[in-house]
Amino acid sequence: MRVIVVGGTGNISTGIVKAMLAFGHEVVVFTRGQRKSELPDEVSHITGDRKDCAAFEAAMQAQAFDAAIDMISYDRADAASAIRAFRGVKHYIHCSTVCTYGGPLAELPATEECELRPINDYGRGKVAADELLLQAHADGLLPVTIMKPAHTFGPSWAVLGQLGAGGWLDRVEKGKPIIVSGDGTNLWSVCSSDDAGLGFAG
């Protein structure tokens, strides 16, 4: 397949590109070109601004892609632009977030029926994008899958500084109490960007 990854040089997307290449797909990335790319030479690049909707949509429609993986759609306006940009693709994958759930999950495992209670603008924006994309899928406008990764560590994100100064291991070594959020029962999962990449690519 020929696949476009929007925002292909970020923390999770580097794992996605690596997995897509391993599966034998042709990969194109769309970025602003402001970060030095360390992607393999066989990856093609399109440079542009995702927020310039008209130019972004024209650039995407000017090429033929079998699938699109969108890592930088953050709100309803971005999702509406994606629906226009990727009409005709066989599969559109939207990167949402566990932040759409807000605080601790009411039940485990989480299902599609879990209540969404975002507590910040990032989570609220993703909920709005998710809702519009799910409606587009239901209306037959775009085949959509929504992924909600948790805290993903990799090339540009550490595992919450667990080992560094101030991390919980550092505090244990110094005989200091461990700081616990809330009542200590909230689960927090972490995921390698390479593992997340396999999930998206699959």
Characterization of the model:
There is one protein chain. With 202 residues, the chain is of the alpha/beta class. The chain contains 6 helices and 8 strands, in the order βαββαβαβαββαβα. Strands 3-2-1-4-5-6 form a 6-stranded parallel beta sheet, with helices on both faces. Strand 7 (151-153), helix 5 (168-173) and strand 8 (190-192) form a beta-alpha-beta unit. Helix 1 (11-22) crosses helix 6 and helix 3 runs parallel beside helix 4 (121-138). It is globular, with a radius of gyration of 18 Å. The mean pLDDT is 90.
Question: Notable features of this structure?
Answer:
202 residues; alpha/beta; two-stranded parallel ribbon; six-stranded parallel β-sheet
Count of beta strands: 8
The residue fraction in helices comes out at 25-40%
Largest sheet: 6 strands, parallel
Strand order of the largest sheet: 3-2-1-4-5-6
Give the overall form.
globular
Number of helices: 6
How much strand content do the residues show?
A: 15-25%
Distance between the termini: 12 Å
Secondary-structure element string: EHEEHEHEHEEHEH
Cα Rg: 18 Å
- Note poorly predicted spans: none
Mean pLDDT level = 90
Q: Structural class, from secondary structure content? A: alpha/beta
